[in-house]
Amino acid sequence: MIDIVTFQENIKKNIISNCYVFCGNDEQTIKDSIISLVSKFVDKEFIDLNYMQFDGNSLENFEPVINACQTLPFMSDKKVVLVYRASFIEDDKGDNGKISGDKDFNKISEYIGEVPSHCILILYDVFKGKRDKPGKRINKLSKNACVVKADKLRGQQLENKIKSLFDVRNKQIGRIELKAFCSLMDENNLSVIENEVEKLCCFTNEQEITKEDIKELFLKSNDDDIFDLVNPISNKRLNESLEVLNELIYRGEKINYILSMIERQFNLLFKVKIGIEARKSKTDIMKEINTRSDYAYDMFVSQSKKFTLKQLHRAIELCIKAEQKMKSSSVDEKTELELLIINAIAG
Prior knowledge:
nucleotidyltransferase; DNA_pol3_delta-like_C; DNA-directed DNA polymerase; Helicase, Ruva Protein, domain 3; alpha/beta; EC 2.7.7.7; 6 strands; globular; single chain; Zinc Finger, Delta Prime, domain 3; 3 domains
């Protein structure tokens, strides 16, 4: 059994198993790890043919999975077969009419030792409790599969891993600065963290890393987040707008809060646009939008130029209507926010 750090290192070294069993509390880390495997071996053009997924909770027998594994990949050396939420590898799962019982599990265990070389079979199970541990069934699978325990890196373990990423780049980082950097790494995706380490190393170049460098590079304000969302809207980039929205939601921002911040941003842009067209001074406009920051003012001016007054007025109306609809009916709030973005871009 290996941890997620060792798994990522093995992938880089091209140490690959024919079968992986992921287990742990952190499903997002498991998904990110699977994505790294799929992206390494499956060409995007043929992903529908060479990447198959099965819901472990609905499998009545393992035959469809075996058939998928036995089928040769199309225009590729490898194919990936995933069984997600494979609760049948837990020791205590009850009889729900799906895969259950030692007899069924023994068949699965035997096949795992026979997975053909052209296939990578992946099963994963998300533990229900923080104290859950791999049981007898998972330990049995470990004889023929690479079992990966996927939990979030925390505390000293996370610090040690990130420190090693700086070390391999011959970049020194102080203990206090390291703790500050780690505290900002919310996503437990080692690939993302490594990219952020690389970014900080490039940003500081040959200079010593300071807390100010970390704050300037990574500590974003709410205004910055909403600017990142409104900016692709203003440039008519729908996919990017929706990606930023999903990122904000994934980080835990509430739909109502995001909507109120978008409405606030459009109101400020509307005031700036009116001020500029009325030839008001920079000082007067900054007073009207209640900011003393030259950076914020320049940001608002730059963004306001991408809209007409009519477009900004319509965007504000769309925000108000979306807010009223969310409060007065049981609509899907995320869908309403997505429609708001689509309509704002179309306008």
